[in-house]
Amino acid sequence: MLAAFAGGTARAEPPEKDSDKKPAVEPKARALLEKMSDFLANQRQFSVQTDGSIEVVLQSGEKVEYDYSSDVRVKRPDKLRSDRHGEKTDAEFYYDGRTFTLYGRNKHYYATADAPGNLDEAIDAAREKLGIEAPAADLLYSKPFEILMEDVVSATYLGPSSIRGVSCEHLAFRGNETDWQIWIQDGPKPVPCKFVITSKKVQGSPEFTVEFSQWNLSPRLGEEVFRFTPRGNDKRIDFADRSKASPETKGDKK
Question: Signal as a keyword (predicted)?
Answer without folding.
Answer: yes
